[in-house]
Amino acid sequence: MARSAKAQDERAGARRAALPFHAITPFTMLDYPGRIACILWVAGCNMRCLYCHNPQIVTSRGAIGEDQALAFLRKRKGLLEGVVFSGGEATIWPGLVAFMARVKALGYAIKLDTNGLRPDVIARLVESDLLDRVALDYKAPRHKFRTVTGAAVFTRFARSLDLLCGQNRIPVEVRSTIHSDLLGEEDILDIARDLSRRGFRGTYALQRAIAGPDRPTLGDLPADARPFDAARLARLSPLELTVR
Ligand code: SF4
Question: CA 53 to CA 218: how far, in whole Å?
């Protein structure tokens, strides 16, 4: 099962290899804490999260090639400090490691936003010293992982989590997106306890799903009508929670 899921990821990534990027956000002060950055949006994803509000990135084949992205980064040297690799899911692109090495050689710091389903790729990026920051999505506890993400491979995500928890060099933020149709307070506490058990020491951030008739999602979710009880979560969580 794991092998066929991996093969699927690689086939999806290979199809998009020629034009890996859906878009470039040329400037952000919000997405890379402490750095002025741009965002490279890698096309395609190995999940189908019900609350995903970027279906065009998940299903697109990409419109921007490596040369164009590198030309952009060369022009912005001295103006930008960091590059955020987001998506979609950047780790399904087979050219990611080599491309990041070229970005690093230009002097940029690199942040990876990832859903953690490719621990093999994350391990190579860590070993190659290419990452300066990681934001890892913890989508759901194991028993809800498939329902929320469409991917029945919690163990692969957990390998990424353990790998990132087991190192001290790269700052790691773990994030959960919350929609009350999918996750409740007990699920968030399950996640916080699991992170604590695994020795996670970074920031755990919660963010509300953006959904509703004018904000279409992959799962056609309605707007989230029930706010979660942030005070209860803060009281019971073994980790400090940041709510966005
Ligand atoms: S929210 Fe889920 S489906 Fe959408 S890009 Fe992120 S991991 Fe992929």
Answer: 7
Total domains present in the chain:
1
Enter the pTM of the model: 0.92
Pick from 31, 42, 54, 221 the residue to mutate for probing ligand 1's pocket: most ligand atoms within 8 Å of its CB. Answer: 54
Residue where the block lists tokens 């990424």: 160
CA angle at residue 180 from 174 to 183, to 5 degrees?
45
Find the 211 Cα to ligand 1 centroid distance in Å: 14
Give the residue, by CA position, lying nearest to ligand 1 atom 5. 88
What's the pLDDT tens digit per position in 175-228?
A: 999 999 999 999 999 999 999 999 998 899 999 998 988 888 999 999 988 888
CB-ligand 1 contact for 60 (6 Å cutoff): no
Strand partners, 178: 208
Three-state SS letters, 60-90: CCCCECHHHHHHHHHHCECCECEEEEEECCH
Q: Is 52 in the pocket of ligand 1 (CB under 6 A)?
A: yes
The Å distance, Cα 55 to ligand 1 centre, comes to 8
- Give me the domain span that covers residue 83: 2-243
Torsion of CA 86, 88, 94, 95, to 10 degrees: -40
- Which atom of ligand 1 is found nearest the CA of 46? 8
Nearest CA to ligand 1 atom 4: 52
* CATH number of the domain within which 186 lies: 3.20.20.70
The H or E element containing residue 135 is: strand 133-137
> Which pLDDT score, from 0 to 100, does residue 1 have?
42
- 105 CB contacts (<8 Å, ≥6 apart)? none
Nearest to 149 by CA among 195, 89, 197: 89
